[in-house]
Design brief:
Blueprint: E1 4-5, H1 8-13, H2 23-36, E2 41-47, E3 53-58, H3 68-71, E4 76-77, H4 98-105, E5 107-113, E6 120-126, E7 129-136, E8 141-147, H5 154-157, H6 163-180, E9 185-190, E10 193-197, H7 204-212, H8 214-217, E11 220-227, E12 230-237, E13 249-253, E14 256-257, H9 261-270, E15 283-288, E16 294-295, E17 306-307, H10 310-325, H11 338-345, H12 358-361, H13 367-379, H14 383-390, H15 394-401, H16 406-423, E18 439-444, E19 448-453, E20 456-461, H17 462-479, E21 485-495, H18 498-506, H19 508-513, E22 517-520, E23 525-532, H20 540-552, H21 558-561, H22 563-574, H23 584-595, E24 610-614, H24 615-621
Parallel strand pairs: 2-9, 13-15
Antiparallel strand pairs: 1-4, 2-3, 3-8, 5-6, 5-8, 6-7, 9-10, 11-12, 12-15, 13-14, 16-17, 18-19, 19-20, 20-24, 21-23, 22-23
Helix pairs in contact: 2-6, 6-7, 6-18, 9-10, 15-16, 17-22, 17-23, 20-22
Bound molecules: adenosine-5'-diphosphate and magnesium ion.
């Protein structure tokens, strides 16, 4: 179709808004044009995060000589002709606004040649003003060079981020584009370093491997299924590769990368029984639906779509994902069998004197103990996060889940009051001189420790207590700029996405301050050479990735965005979990360490570490006192 200028009526129907707000949106528009032009190979090169230069070369069908100038007019497109075409869009572009918007705010050079013409044309247009139009020898296809983005719009320049983060956004975009079209060979070069190269062999799994590395590619479940008039094709991650942000929930509608709440909900609900709280799956799949049931004309940057029946899309996607997850491949998810727990029983008997055997029981100083703690770590949903969400103590929560009869209502109101009272425990419990007077009775529910002291019984949450100890110890080291690190030999190698690499490089100093030593290992791989030694009982790789992810999601959660929040995350990762057997000595060590803290009574998330019930309350319950 030749390029035509849309009529007023059609223009008015097009979702209006900003097309170009940063270099990545220019890359998005130009690569989409290359895809629409039928290219099988697309190369993107950028300098300074795309701010000083973006070059995009494709081997698509090119632009006819007489269409070139027109292509840069507003509302000029070869992809639709009239309003009725808006209902049935088969191309990524259709608004005819990208080229006009880009040439208005940058210096643009275009070289293009169609198959049928003998020579190519070189066209130059700066800030919307034509500078050159000449014949030139060129291969079939199109090259756009965009220089000095916003050179003539100083107000806009101010909003550009650092070249690293603009470049990072382009990297992520290129990954999404490459994943959306495994049949196209993409090449992405930033500065002089090649960042991404896909073969275009049509195999999505190969693209996933190229971008995310071995570990992710080895833990995928293939989906190729239809439900109603919706098909889903692609890969979803086994629970072992779940992440702590939604960034890896990736999906495409008819090859278009978008964000959609209903699909997000379908994904997360399908994974509900497979993932811990606050863990999000890895997915890359395409949803295919009749174009007529889909409105792509709802968002200026085409990042959203509207379905004629969103509920049905949600249900179909969820059903398909549930079917895939219920398949046999998932079985190795349960990798925390009883057998692994057995060694716990072999720990030294619990008759040791308080304070002895610390070397045996403390994770950072003893390998065997580390193993035990690590097993525990893998096991359990993070309990405090549940409580944090609910903002209620667990006993209260349990009761809430039962029938809400008036009687129970009254009961738990009372419980709640009691809880609030008991939160303030007799402070002298945690004075060191009283150490020998504490009688450690034992563990209940594999989570809480019962202690007797004076006229009270105390219940200590082993996870909250350990978490708080790690947190305060580390905060102190951190505040004194005296963080001790533990060398990991051999180093642990992790594959990072371009976005993660950008964030890591941007925050390398603060990673170092926290005790991480990370360096490049070639390609997208990085070597973790040391971690903060306080947290050496954590799964080291997860500790690092979790910390890195907390920078990605930083802006969304105020607690997480601060150093404190990050340290709390690390402490939580490294602390022994609930529902885990620990020995009496370990519990005694926890009590002893709690005593050294400034505020031993609450975990970093505000939950109590210890609660108290007095003898008086026992007596009352048993009606000894009325
Ligand atoms: P749209 O993509 O919405 O049609 P654009 O402003 O992005 O609008 O592009 C205008 C027109 O320029 C397109 O419709 C297409 O005909 C032509 N065009 C742009 N880029 C290319 C390309 N890489 N190869 C061939 N044609 C292109
Ligand atoms: Mg376009």
């Amino acid at each position: 179709m030749a390029i035509n200028i849309l009529d007023e009526e059609t223009i008015n129907k097009i979702a209006a808004g900003e097309v170009v707000d940063r270099p990545s949106s220019i890359v998005k528009e130009l690569v989409e044009n290359a895809i629409d032009a039928g290219a099988s190979a697309i190369t993107v090169e950028i300098k300074d995060g795309g701010i000083s230069m973006i070059r995009i070369t494709d081997n698509g069908k090119g632009i006819e000589k007489e269409d070139i100038r027109k292509a840069f007019y507003r509302h000029a497109t070869s992809k639709i002709q009239s309003e009725k075409d808006l209902m049935n869009i088969g191309t990524l572009g259709f608004r005819g606004e990208a080229l006009s918007s880009i040439c208005a705010v940058a210096q643009v050079e275009l070289i293009t040649k169609t198959e049928g013409s003998l020579t190519g044309i070189r066209y130059e247009i700066n800030g919307g003003k034509e500078e050159a139009f000449e014949e030139i020898g060129a291969p079939d296809g199109t090259t756009f060079v965009v220089r000095n983005v916003f050179y003539n719009v100083p107000a806009r320049q101010k909003f550009l981020k650092s070249p690293t983060s603009e470049g990072g956004a382009i990297s992520t975009l290129m990954e999404h584009l490459a994943l959306s079209r495994p049949d196209i060979s993409f090449r992405f070069i930033s500065g002089s370093s090649p960042k991404l190269q896909t073969t275009g062999n049509g195999k999505l799994k190969d693209v996933i491997y190229t971008i995310y590395g071995r570990e992710i590619a080895a833990n995928l479940i293939e989906v190729d299924d239809t439900e109603g008039n919706i098909s889903v094709k692609g890969f979803i991650g086994k629970p072992v590769i779940a992440r702590s942000t939604r960034a890896m929930e990736q999906y495409y509608i008819n090859d278009r990368f978008i964000k959609n709440n209903m699909i997000q909900k379908a994904i997360e609900e399908a994974y509900d029984n497979y993932l811990m709280l606050h863990k999000y799956p890895f997915t890359v799949f395409g949803i295919y639906i009749d174009q007529e049931l889909l409105d792509v004309n709802v968002h200026p940057a085409k990042m959203e779509v509207r379905f004629s029946d969103a509920q049905q899309v949600y249900e179909s996607v969820k059903t398909i994902l549930l079917r895939a997850l219920a398949g046999k491949q998932i079985i190795n998810r349960v990798e925390l069998p009883e057998a692994k727990e057995a060694p716990r029983q072999e720990l030294p008997a619990s008759d040791s004197a308080f304070g002895k055997n610390f070397d045996l029981i403390w994770p950072s100083t003893n390998n065997r103990a580390v193993e035990i703690f690590e097993d525990g770590n893998k096991k359990e949903p993070v309990m405090h996060e549940q409580a944090e969400d609910a903002r209620l103590p667990e006993p209260f929560e349990q009761v809430r889940n039962e029938e809400a009869t008036l009687k129970k209502q009254m009961f738990f109101e009372e419980e709640k009051k009691k809880y609030e009272q008991t939160e303030l425990i007799t402070p002298e419990l945690l004075h060191e001189e009283n150490l020998t007077k504490i009688n450690v009775i034992g563990q209940i529910f594999k989570t809480y420790w019962i202690l007797e002291y004076g006229d009270s019984v105390y219940m200590m949450d082993q996870h909250a207590a350990h978490e708080k100890i790690l947190f305060e110890q580390f905060m102190e080291e951190f505040d004194n700029a005296n963080v001790s690190r533990q060398t990991i030999n051999p180093p642990i190698i992790v594959s990072l996405t371009e976005e993660q690499i950008g964030i890591l490089n941007e925050h390398m100093d603060s990673f170092e301050e926290m005790g991480f030593e990370i360096d490049e290992f070639g390609g997208n791989e990085y070597a973790i050479r040391s971690i903060p030694s306080n947290f050496s009982s954590a799964d080291k790789k997860e500790l690092f990735l979790e910390t890195l992810d907390s920078y990605v999601s930083g802006s969304t959660r105020s607690l997480q965005s601060s150093v404190r929040g990050r340290i709390a995350t690390m402490a939580c990762k490294a602390a022994v979990k609930g529902n885990t057997y620990i020995s009496k000595e370990e519990a005694e060590r926890l009590i002893k360490d709690l005593m050294k803290l400034k505020n031993p009574y609450n975990c970093p998330h505000g939950r109590p570490t210890i609660i108290e019930m007095t003898k008086y309350e026992f007596d009352r319950k048993f009606k000894r006192i009325i």
